[in-house]
Amino acid sequence: MTGETRPAFGLFLYFGLIFLLGMYFTFAAVQGEYGLFRRAVVQSDNVQLRHQLAELEERIVVMENRTRRLSDDYLDLDLLDQQARDVLGLVRGDEFVLR
């Protein structure tokens, strides 16, 4: 026999399996459900939803202000007149309406 040794197949299989597992976990960390790309999408959605929340909170403040101004405790006659004209279509007797 000669002194040639062949590479151990088990060692090659072991390192191949370790490499494949590493590639799988790397792919999952980047592309997976909780990966980096998904995180970027979630952060983008978060920014958009916070902007939408700020707009809705601003609308709530405006609505609360109008509601308070039309309440019995604090009646704004100008706002009441405007709402009667817009919603009910009321006009005074000395006014002309052009359509």
From TrEMBL:
Name of one Pfam family that matches: DivIC
InterPro entries linked to this entry: FtsL/DivIC
Protein name: Uncharacterized protein
Organism this protein belongs to: Pseudooceanicola algae
Organism lineage string: Bacteria, Pseudomonadati, Pseudomonadota, Alphaproteobacteria, Rhodobacterales
